[in-house]
Structures are given as structure tokens and as C-alpha cells.
Write a structure and sequence with these properties.
Number of domains: 1
Structural class: alpha+beta
Largest sheet: 3 strands, antiparallel
Distance between the termini: 78 Å
Helix content: 25-40%
Strand content: 5-15%
Radius of gyration: 21 Å
Number of strands: 3
Shape: globular
Order of helices and strands: HHHEEE
Length: about 120
């Protein structure tokens, strides 16, 4: 069996630009046309898979994996924090999917007091 050829860098760069433009268009149309938004996100994810290009951590947090819509706080995204588990909870209001991301809250360091008696 022969190995698959890796895609050239210039093709991956074009795919990355196209993915980002599709996601920007999806963000612009989220208020007016939800079907178009979902289609733009689906196309961007398909390009990402085909050309093995990441969509980036910022967009990963703001795209619902379940219903393929762009998540905007207050419109279709509920954000909560949990002190108990130390996570930020993102909940999609359209499909109810939940994502949890860890965070570092205030860390209290107990100072050790040295008992020195002279």
C-alpha cells in the first residue's frame, strides 16, 4: 500500500481562510437566518475535516457540536460557573447540549509557619 500524499501548505492556508470566512458569515447571520448559519458552520467543519485544518480554540468554544450553530452569549448560549467542580459550563439554548471547560479560580496557598524557638 502506498501512503497518502500530504496536502501542500498553500492549499491548507486557503482552506483555513475559507473556514474563517464561513464562520464569520455564520456569526453575522445568526440573528436573521438560523438555517443559513447552520449550513455555513457545517461547510466550515467539512473543510476542516477534509484538509485536516483546525478551526481554532476560540471558534471551538463558540460552535455547538450537536446542532452546528454559532453560540452567542445571551442569545442562544447560557454561561455558568461551578465553584464545586471548577468549570465554566456552556449550554446551548437551541438543543440543550452542555460543554464544560476547566478554569483556575483563586488559589489560596496556606503559608507554613515555622515554629522557631530560640
Amino acid at each position: 500500500m502506498s501512503k497518502r500524499k500530504a496536502k501542500p501548505k498553500w492549499i491548507k492556508e486557503i482552506a483555513k481562510k475559507r473556514i474563517l470566512s464561513l464562520l464569520e458569515q455564520a456569526k453575522e447571520t445568526v440573528f436573521s437566518n438560523s438555517d443559513r448559519t447552520k449550513r455555513y458552520v457545517e461547510l466550515a467543519l467539512a473543510l476542516s475535516k477534509k484538509y485536516n485544518v483546525s478551526i481554532g480554540p476560540d471558534w471551538k468554544k463558540h460552535v455547538c457540536k450537536n446542532c452546528h450553530t454559532v453560540l452567542i452569549e445571551g442569545f442562544n448560549l447560557q454561561v455558568r460557573t461551578s465553584k464545586k467542580t471548577g468549570t465554566v459550563i456552556y449550554k446551548c439554548k437551541e438543543c440543550g447540549a452542555v460543554k464544560r471547560y476547566p478554569y483556575k479560580g483563586k488559589v489560596f496557598i496556606k503559608e507554613k509557619t515555622l515554629n522557631t524557638t530560640h
